[in-house]
Amino acid sequence: MRFDKDLVAASATPLVLGILAEGESYGYAILKRVTELSGGRMQWTDGMLYPLLHRLERLGLVVATWGTSEAGRRRKHYALTAAGRDALVERQEQWTVVADVLHQVWRSAQQAAQATQPLQPMARPAVAEGWA
Prior knowledge:
By secondary structure, the protein is α+β, with helices and mostly antiparallel strands. It has 4 helices and 3 strands; from the N terminus they run αβααββα.
């Protein structure tokens, strides 16, 4: 499934902040976590994630430190700051409102669509043999 670019952009910050609220992580692990959480329906790329992480770092929402993996490879680890936790709470509140409004709009649209559909003739009940 392909996601609209605007939807990915709008949801990327709260998703990354939420993932980092689970604990410190590094880029590739964040990409894998998004794929896992979406059941494979969302596939982010390095080119989308790393500029976002750098922006969050510039904004003071995450802090990055260099570490070494078990394989001896250097990688940058990201963790939420106190400001990042505050931003996550604010984004959660915003997304809750947006999700509630969308749910109401879609429910209304579904009800309107059902109301405008022509009525289907009712099926006649089957008559048991010998009772006609």
